[in-house]
Amino acid sequence: MPDDLFRLTVTEAEGALSAGDISSVDLTGSVLDRIDAVDASTGAFLLVTAEAALEQAREADARRSRGDAGPLLGIPLAIKDVLCTDGVATTCASRILEGFVPPYDATVVARLKAAGAVLVGKTNMDEFAMGSSNENSGYHPVRNPWDLSRVPGGSSGGSAAAVAADECLAALGSDTGGSVRQPAALCGCVGLKPTYGRVSRYGLVAFASSLDQVGPLTKSVRDAAVLLSAISGHDSRDATSLPEPVPDYAAALDGSVEGLRIGVAPEYFAEGIDAGVASAVRNAIELLEANGAEIREIALPHTEYALPVYYVIAPSEASANLARYNGVKYGLSDPQAVDVDEMMATVRARGFGAEVKRRIMLGTFALSSGYYDAYYLRAQKVRTLIKQDFDAAFESVDVIAAPTSPTTAFELGGRTADPLAMYRADVLTLPASLAGLAAISVPCGFVDGLPVGLQLMAPPLQEARLLRAADAYERLRPAAPAPRQAVEA
Amino acid sequence: MTIDPGYRVVIGLETHVQLKTASKMFCRTSAAYASAPPNTLVCPICLGMPGVLPVINAAAVDLTIMTGLALHSEIPPHAKFDRKNYAYPDLMKWYQISQYDLPLCVGGWLEINADGETRRIDITRVHLEEDTAKLTHVVGDDGQPASLIDVNRSGVPLMEIVSEPDITSAAEAMAYGLKLRNILRWLGVSTANMQDGALRIDANVSVWPSGAEVGNAKVEVKNMNSFRALGQALDYEIERQIALYERGERLVQETRGWDEAAARTVPQRTKEYAHDYRYFPEPDLPPLSITRERVQGLAARMPELPDAVRQRLVGELGVAATDADELIEDRDLTAYTLDVIERHGGPAAEVVTWVLQDVRRLLNARELDVADIPIDAASMARLLGLRAKGDLSTTMAGTVLEEMFATGKSPEEIVAARGRQISDTDALVEIAREVMAANPQAVADYHAGKDRAIQFLMGQVMRRTRGQANPGKVTELLRVELGGNGGA
Amino acid sequence: MIDREQVVHVAALARLALSDAEIDRMQADLQQILQAFEALNALDVSDVAPTAQVIPLATVERPDTTEAPLSRDDVMRNAPRVERDQIRVPAVLTED
Question: ipTM of this predicted complex?
Answer without folding.
Answer: 0.97
